[in-house]
Structure formats: C-alpha cells, structure tokens
Amino acid sequence: MLKCKQTRKVQNNGSKNSGVRINVPEQIASLMELKPKDLVDLELQVESVDDVRLVITKHEK
C-alpha cells in the first residue's frame, strides 16, 4: 500500500489567506468537531487503481 500524509488547514469561509486549504462538508466537520482554521491530517491510501481512499483526521497538537 502507498501512503502519503500531510497536514492542511480547514477552509475559512471566504478567507483570502494564502496556503493550501480544503473544504470539509458541514456534516463531516460537525461530526469531527472541526472549526474554520483547524488543522487536519490527510492520508492518501492507495491499494490499487480501483481502491483509493482519503483519510481525514483532526490534527492533534
């Protein structure tokens, strides 16, 4: 399995700040207790060409 992990900032509604941000759907953000500007870890898991997953976890400081 190929794994790639990065930490990114959650999108701040309408912010013009530079940097890489991701939009997390509201339902998922509330389940994960995320707020704008929280950091999340992104892990791309590639088992095969048909089995690719993006795992989003709240970044622990």
Provide an overview of this structure.
By secondary structure, the chain is mostly beta strands. The protein has one domain (2-10, 20-58). The chain is built from 1 helix and 4 strands; from the N terminus they run E-E-H-E-E. A 4-stranded mixed beta sheet has the order 2-1-3-4, with no helix packed on it. Strand 3 (39-48) and strand 4 (51-58) form a beta hairpin. The longest helix has 6 residues, at 26-31. It is elongated. The N and C termini lie far apart (27 Å). The model is unreliable at 14-18 (pLDDT under 50).
Please give a handful of descriptors for the protein shown.
61 residues, 4-stranded mixed sheet, 1 helix, single chain, mainly beta, 4 strands
Question: In short, what is this structure?
Answer:
The chain is mainly beta and 61 residues long. It has 1 helix and 4 strands; from the N terminus they run E-E-H-E-E. It has one domain.
Question: How is the main sheet built?
Answer: 4 strands, mixed
Structural class: mainly beta
SS field, number of helical segments: 1
N-end to C-end Cα span:
27 Å
Question: What is the fold's blueprint, element by element?
Answer:
Layout: E1 2-10, E2 21-22, H1 26-31, E3 39-48, E4 51-58
Parallel strand pairs: 1-2
Antiparallel strand pairs: 1-3, 3-4
